[in-house]
Each structure stands twice: as structure tokens, then as C-alpha cells.
What we know:
- The protein is mainly α.
- The chain has 14 helices and no strands.
- It has helices spanning 3-8, 20-46, 48-52, 54-74, 76-83, 85-108, 113-161, 173-207, 212-230, 237-248, 257-261, 263-270, 274-303, 309-317.
- The N and C termini lie far apart (50 Å).
Amino acid sequence: MDEREVLLQPTSPALHEMSPHAIYNSFILMSCCFSINHACVTTVLGLASTELGSHLGGYSSGTLYICYTLCALLGATYIVGALGQKRALIIGTAAYCVYVTSFLVGIVWPRVIVLAAISGSIIGGMAAGWLWTAQSGYFTSCVEAYTEAQLAAELKQSSNEGSAADPIAGGDRTAAKRQATSTFAGTFSTAYLGMEVGSKLVSYLLLRLPHGRLISFASFSAVAVLSAAGMVLVEDVEARVQQATAAGGPASGGKGLFDKSLAAVRLLGSDVKMPLMYPTQMAFGFTSSFLTYYVTKDVINEYFSMATIPLLGGLISG
């Protein structure tokens, strides 16, 4: 075996069992289900203050963001580690459905609108805290598995042909992983932005129909549930990567509950790049809340109509 074949030698048979095509298809399915589910959440979130009123809408959105922040800061790493990436995605998107359907419950049973809005915001906010952590972890697992499977396929093909292995540009694992990362990132971004804009346009059309509020919230609740159900079909790529890691050598010592729970907090103080992100994140948090709480209800809805609100959201997302 020459030097180039050594560089291309896959790390473990555990990752050979899935073809690169199967791994990529699973990632596409995850991206579509995640993006559709999240688009349903952001669409109804944009209508929160208009649908629920200034006070309840503000309390609902505030509760959502507070629970999101606390969970992301204190528990997301541990939750994803305990559940695994696939289960965390399934449970997270299912919990998102509770937030989306809380608006429908408030329309059908107005007497429980306060309970539905606040409880939905708590559950949805907690889910949001770990859902993005699970998504990023699944992205990383897919890139690693795809790279190894692709290198294995290229090496097998070159061995069958009796020629020197010369697959992906660069001819080594680093170049292959860089190319895979770019491909997967582009795929997710396309699905995410496409679903965000598309959901806003659909909401605009639905709200213009007779009984548009009921039809809109019922439709988005149903779509959110279907997208969460679709997560069940996603391949558990993380398990295969962990199997490959275990086969390659002894696993490193695990961290305790306290260490995992405070991983994000430690990162805030240990990484010198983090303070550079604070102004951007704070500005984004303020403007998104300002748009959701004030602009949509007191400007757009007042001078145009409720149906116009999703168009503003679609313009911002695009």
C-alpha cells in the first residue's frame, strides 16, 4: 500500500456500511424536517403579539426567549449528550409542535388561551435551547461519516481497477472533509432559508382566506407535527461514528452532569473570540424582539393587515 492509499484508508468498517449517498440523503431529510418545523415556529411567533394581544403576546414571547436562553446556556450540551443527536432532534421538534399548536388551542378554546400560550412558550423555549445544539452535532457527525464512506468507496474503486487512489481534490482526508463540510452547509442553508421564506408566503395567502386565522394556525400545527414525525426516519449517524471511534481505540473519560451543563458558560469566559460576538448577538436579540412585539402589531397590523405580517417576516428572512 503506497503513501496515498494510507492517507485514504478509512478509520473503521462501522462507517463503510452506509454509502455516501445514503448519508447525504439522511442529512437532506433532517435539514428539510428541521427547517419546516422551525419555519412553522417563526411564522406563528411573528403573529404572537397580534393574535394574543400586547400583554399576553409579550409575556408569551418573553417566556419563550428566557427558557431558550437558560436551556441553551445551562443544559443543552448535557441533554443532547444524554439523548443522542437523533432523539434530541425528534423530541425537540415534537416540543416545538406544542408551541405552534398553543395558538390553535387559544383560538378554539379562548378560556384557556393564557395557559396554552405560556405553557407552549415554556416547552417550545426549552426545546429550542437544545435543538440547535443537536442540529450542529448531527451536521458534524454526517460530515465525518460522509468523508469516511466516500474515501472507502474511492479506495475500493481504485483497488478494483488496479490504479492508484486519486479521489477528491487534495487526495487526503482533510481535503475530503473540507469539501463535505461545504456541501452539507450549503444544503442546510438552502433548505432553511427556503422553508423560512416559503412558510411566510403560505401564511400570507392563508390569512387572506375566510376564517384565515383558524386555517393558518391549524395548517402550521399539522405541518409541524408531520415534520417532527419525519425526524424518526433520519438515520442515526452519530451511533455509527461513535462505533467507529470505539473501534479505533479506548474512549476518553466522560464528563459529569455539572461539567456538561456548564460547558456553554465556560466557553463564554474561556474563548477570547466570544466577546467579539456579543454586540451582534445583543443587537439581533433586541431587533427580533422589537419586530415581533411592537412593529408587527402596532405598525404593520395597524396600518396594513394581519396578513401582511408574514410578508415582512419573509422579507427579513430572505
